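Pilot study result, target chain (291 residues):
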Amino acid sequence: ESVPEGPDSLRVMETLIRNGSKVVFATSFGYMDFVMETAKKHENIIFMHCSGYKTAENVGTYFGRMYQARYLSGLVAGSMSKSNVIGYVAAQPIPEVIRGINAFTLGVRKTNPKAEVRVIWIFSWFDPGKEKEATKALIDAGADVIAMHADTGAAPQTAEEAGVYVVGYNNDMTPYAPTKHLTAPVWNWGMIYNQVMDQVTRGTWKSEQIWYGLKEGLVGLAPFGKDVPEDVRKLVETEKAKIINGEWDVFNGPVRDQSGAEKVAEGKAMTDGDMLSMNWFVEGVKGDIPK
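Predicted structure:
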């Protein structure tokens, strides 16, 4: 727990291996190069790295198509906004977060074409103080729904205190916003751990890049808050079914960027590579991506 994304992770991984671990899960993007370095020294140990892109014979990666759940939560957020301003507390300006903001905004604009999503970067995954201040600033700027990519309950708590709706993240954040929580894109990491350990036990594990979505059950939505109307719930289920059965995906064209330039044409689908390297905002996002 609380292992910094830096050289200290090398020490922790070496300690785990020395203590008998045969499989190491590295659960944050910043561990990537240190995983690769450790894996070179221990070719008999299996490493699974979350959200990275580097692999080796004994290193696999795993992540989820959280953008799919983000899109569904955007449908809810857009439908609940009266001011047409939705705030987004954003962690780090990396493709994972940008992709989530874009997917959320596409959902928002489907149910509320006039809405805009305003982004404030906090440059941290876990900082309750910054999350709270960013939420307050977005509410002061007119947001009547808050969304987030951060790891504490500070944003939902602040939204609840202000009487503003909120879309949580990671897990069901209703306890932080009992009356204002609409839903949350959530993870089911257990399925990955079970799958990998089953493969290891059977001797069938091999290095691969796992990127599961709604279909496989790695990502999903928390229960709806009581204020979410029935027609919105039905729309979410309809859109979810289209994604699961492969009929459609979030970044199928047409998709335009902030300037209105076409990024994905009608009838075309964005490749996984383009999604994983996303460094631009879609139409409807108000904010910049720091370089």
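One observation from the pilot: The domain at 66-184+222-286 is CATH 3.40.50.2300 (Rossmann fold). A full batch analysis is planned for the follow-on phase.
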